[in-house]
Amino acid sequence: MTQQSEPSKLLVVPEDWNKAVAVVAHPDDLEYGAASAIARWTAQGKEIVYLLVTRGEAGIDAMAPEKTGHLREQEELKSAAAVGVHQVEFLNYSDGVIEYGLPLRRDLARAFRRHRPDFVIGQNYQITYRGGNFNMADHRAVGLATLDAARDAGNRWIFPELLEEGHERWNEIKYVAISGSPNLTHAVDVSGSLERGIASLKEHKVYIENLPFEFNPEEFLTWGAAAVGPRIGVDSAVGFELFKM
To answer: Which domains does the chain have, with CATH numbers?
Structure first.
């Protein structure tokens, strides 16, 4: 019988920053872990803006997209408020068919130049999640474009049309933290903010009710946080793959 090794230790996510933009493809993408960390950070007085690339209109099979998009937008606004985020923007890309490319990079770079964050939260750009589950195309496209746009925002010669629009370059992004990555490097203690993270996920009530399987937000987030917590010596934590820019 082979002996399983203990999970490796993780570093603690730096908190020497003041403003973040969190970029994901769909309503609810942030709520499967990252929102618990965001609740901690807003309680510290940090300013966080949510940027949703779509409205998630293709996410409920039994409901028409035009109705689903409005519903999921409203659920996301309530979900964000539960963790202290009150600025939520939507780019209105079509759900399910997001393409990685220059238009997406340009739109994200524009948002970074406009909001001027020193921290960016993104989502998993890899083919799989931890455990091997397949990661969908929208997530991969948005996650990779977020990383690239964080660099693009600081180069005046990339997307010069943004300068013409009045968006000066912004090269003060210190870190990009990728949520849901299979390659965790850092984690955040959410022992005091997990309950708000759970409340945030529960706001996606209609979406969760229409999942093709039974899903319990409290059990899922509590289990995940308990699995990561010991890797930084706490009870509950959320993991990220952290890039220093």
So the answer is: 13-244 (3.40.50.10320)
